[in-house]
Fold this sequence. Notes:
- About 20% of the residues lie in helices and about 25% in strands.
- It is built from two helices and four strands, in the order βαββαβ.
- A two-stranded antiparallel ribbon has the order 1-4. Strands 2-3 form a two-stranded antiparallel ribbon.
- β2 (about 40) and β3 (about 45) form a beta hairpin.
- The chain is globular.
- The structure holds iron/sulfur cluster (SF4).
Amino acid sequence: MSAETMDSVFIDIELDEPxxxxxxxxxxxxxxxxxxIFKATExxxxxxxxxxxxxxxxxxxxxxAPEGSLRIIKKYEA
Length: 78
Ligand code: SF4
């Protein structure tokens, strides 16, 4: 596996609509995540695949998003 692979090994993040398309939530997510996993765009949240494995499981993003709309999936427990 190369270092440039876009696939995350350990972490996946699911963000449901309509939350994913909310530009205000996108800004909030970009702000709370210290490892740059969320990118705010005018169309909502972009999840930066290459950063996923940097997740420190602080769950600030889950708290910032509407209840149940954002889930951190730990692949290694699956
Ligand atoms: S749990 Fe923390 S580090 Fe992981 S994506 Fe959410 S805000 Fe970022």
